[in-house]
Amino acid sequence: MATNRDVFLPVAAQPSVDALVEQAQSAEEMGYDRAWLPESWGRNAAVVLTSIAERTEDIGIGTSIMPVYSRSPALIGMTAATLQEVAEGRLRLGLGPSGPIVIENWHGVDFGNPLRRTRETVDVVKQVLSGEEVSYDGEYFDLDGFRLRCDPPDPQPPIDTAAMGPKAVELAGRFADGWHALMLTEDGLAERYEDFRHGRELADKDPDGGQVTLSLTCMALEDRERARELVRGHSAFYLGGMGTYYRDNMARQGYEDIAHEVYDLWQEGKKREATAAIDDDLLDTLAVGGTPDECRERVSEWEAMDCVDRVSVSFPRGAEVEEILNTVEALAPEA
Fold it and tell me: What proportion of the chain, given as a percentage, has pLDDT over 90?
């Protein structure tokens, strides 16, 4: 597959919206193809992406991810239509359920059935973006009689869904235009890709089509130990501190003992021990951390996998702005 490199803008350690815009501008100058922005409990992704769209020329923009529980499907569709207009066709919409820690603790919404809600949201958003009258009778959403009061976006932005488990990845293949993969080892990614292909087959699509974007945690610094410390700490936070979602995902990939050890230690308040429990073998098949030369080689190896269309260079949550910028530069496509 031909592979292009994206950048996954960080939500942590950012002093302002301007800082995120400047990072997107730098990524554009360095040859990155798209700037993705997550939305959790910080800045509103749509507002930030609007600022980025108006102050860049060519780089694509995208949400990775916009949670399906925090907005209605119609509002997501309206937001996507507006962003596509502002960005002059450069938007790719990434959706997903997020996780119960974020949805229940922050939005106060029952996490419910994330697969069904994601599928129905994708269905409704596609209807909204078509410009036709929306008519939908689902388990979660029952809509009838409205359509956009502005011209529908042309082209319609593709819709990806983020997923880790087998059924969720199959759903991405069946109902969406692409899959956002995260927190997967190399073997785990290859295994889940078969679920993505199966989903496309169920929808009578080309099983080798669709776009697979891998969000890959990276830190490329001359201080090798600092880089690996940041990546290891980030992995421990997700396995231990974000509920059982990521723990179970790692256990499913053959790392059950480590996943439960990290989770249990973190829950006991032993964060340092939890971080140390992630050995080098797991770290190096899950993320990229080291010197710039080491990281460039490892990212290229991920990109060479048959199941990867795009690598989105992501960053550990504890990284400082300067360390993020150094990594963006070190891993730039034109470096």
Answer: 93
Which residue pairs, CB below 8 angstroms and at least 24 apart, start in 261-264?
262/236, 263/239
Q: pTM higher than 0.85, yes or no? A: yes
User: Collapsing DSSP states into helix, strand and coil, what is residue 206?
Assistant: coil
Alpha-carbon dihedral sign for residues 311, 64, 125, 88: negative
Question: 3-class SS at 19?
Answer: helix
- Tell me how far apart the terminal alpha carbons of the chain are, to the nearest angstrom: 21
Q: Which residues contact 91 (CB under 8 A, 6 or more apart)?
A: 49, 53, 60, 61, 62, 80, 83, 84, 153, 157
Backbone angles phi, psi at 16, to 5 degrees: -165, 165
Average pLDDT over residues 122-128: 98
Q: What is the DSSP string of 131-196?
A: TSPEEEE-SS-EEEEE--SSPPPSSPPPEEEE--SHHHHHHHHHHSSEEEEES--HHHHHHHHHHH
Segment (H or E) for 91 = strand 91-96
Using alpha carbons only, what angle is made at residue 84 by residues 329 and 162, rounded to the nearest 5 degrees? Answer: 65
The burial of 139, by beta-carbon neighbours within 10 Å (0-12 exposed, 13-18 middle, 19 or more buried), is given as: exposed
Give the side-chain half-sphere CA count within 13 A for 172: 29
Q: What pLDDT was estimated at residue 14?
A: 81
